[in-house]
């Protein structure tokens, strides 16, 4: 274990991958105990793994890894929950049609896309509306919604994947 920690300290890709492989099942188990939506769970797992990699030098390789991973992961999750409960600036839920600069005609493709955007969750619509409708940066969106810019970037990516799935599901029918 000491050699593995040394490899993680030196940022050796094979060591980091093995470190994450050792930590991932435990982190997922810890995160699963926090009741939140799937996106938050995924964000918390990534946050925990990043923190564990960054703080690997603090780990005493002679001791058991599991208890340290559990404590660090639990604390990161608690901080995530605390941070997410901070007061946030309330934003209006954008009208899906407002994401497009020109008002769509009833028969145009933009109206079809607006209908598909309406099928997304509120948070997905809000984030996409701020990013593509208001043309805000990840940092600006993060300040408004109360998330880190990296978390905003992940949420945008997931929202676009969901939108593609919705659009793909319509093409099949």
Could you explain how this protein is built, in words?
The chain has 173 residues and is mostly helical. It contains eight helices and no strands. Helix 2 (13-32) crosses helix 4 and helix 7 packs across helix 8. It is elongated.
List strands and helices in order, with pairings:
Layout: H1 2-9, H2 13-32, H3 38-54, H4 65-84, H5 109-118, H6 122-133, H7 138-145, H8 149-172
Helix pairs in contact: 1-2, 2-3, 2-4, 3-4, 6-8, 7-8
In short:
The chain has 173 residues and is mainly alpha-helical. It has 8 helices and no strands.
Please compute the radius of gyration using only Cα atoms. Answer: 20 Å
Number of helices: 8
Any low-confidence stretches, pLDDT <50, length ≥5? Answer: 86-93, 98-108
Assembly state: single chain
Structural class: mainly alpha
How would you sum up the major sheet?
A: none
Record keyword descriptors for this entry.
173 residues, mainly alpha
